User: Fold this.
Amino acid sequence: MAREKVTTLYLGPQHPGITGNMMVRLKVKGDTIVGARTEVGYLHRGFEKLQERRNWLQAFTILCRFCVPEPDPVEEAYALAVELLEGREVPERAKYIRVLVLEMARIASYLLWYGGQSGSAGLYTMGQWSVGDRNYILDLFEDLTGGRVYHMFIWPGGVRRDLPKGFKDKAMKVMDYLEKRLDDYDTLLFENSIFQKRAKGVGIIDKNKAIEWGVVGPPLRGCGIKSDIRIDDPYEIYGELYEKGVFEVHPYEGGDVWARALVRRFEIRQSIKIIRYVLDNIPSGDFYNKIPNPHKWTLPKGDAYSRVEATRGEIGFFVASDGSNKPRRTHMRGAAYVHAITLLENILIGENVADVSFIMNSLGTCPPEIER
Assistant:
């Protein structure tokens, strides 16, 4: 009997199933994966060093490039770290607006995930629906920030502008529409036998290995572990909202693509609840505790670290100051590095080559975050 040949396959960097400009080099026997190695280097990089050559406010403008589909949590993490280092207070109204922006970003990101996850299973109608519906959220971002994708809105001291006139009514209508639309999503995707067969028992993360590997976000909650920075280390008004029962964090057992999909399905509805509460209860007052002249604005010597919960998991930001008007050091801790390299290379072993893109989309990777 002839020995089965091991073949090398290169998936990406332009393959539509890849979650951005990266590549996975696969070793396969037949159609079974026996080895996997993630390779990056196809994108822009050096963001952290670029920040260190700019003043504290100019450094903020680079943050959107860390993860293009969801830049707002990175802005939040940087702003929190700078405020912690300086001791700058943020107005209560600004905290509400920040949460509003972060949850809008969460919904937009999850709608994009719906498209990628379903498209990887050949269910393209779902992607056309969800990416089309995402435009309604982008419309809200454009009204609020002036930009649809890059917002540069959450900055040290608060937010860049107040809610525009009529924003609440428009946002509420979008939330009402999306909530009804999610029922159609369930019918089209989650009740679809093709999606269920492709998702259940595929891409399993060992629950006992999840913490060791540094898994965070929906992949960790999909292992049955209740972990979310919004309740574990609350920031802005999330602690208050959780205590009042405005939103919940619900883990799902299984560790497979199906469990991770259920986590995201649940959390998009929770984000809608949070946005409604914020719009109904936002206090009056200032939206920005103004910083000094950016060119002369110096921060005391020292360092600070903050962390927030993005849709792909924990985002952490470290900043260090030497007392000048520029950061001495900045460093971001992102979920994508672990999920796209350590995790992906391990859980692909033994899987079918047809499921590579499907598994990758379930992990929520963002290549620019790796190459920063």
In short: The CA atoms of residues 209 and 215 lie 9 Å apart. Strands lie at 6-11, 23-29, 32-39, 154-155, 158-159, 302-310, 313-321, 327-333.
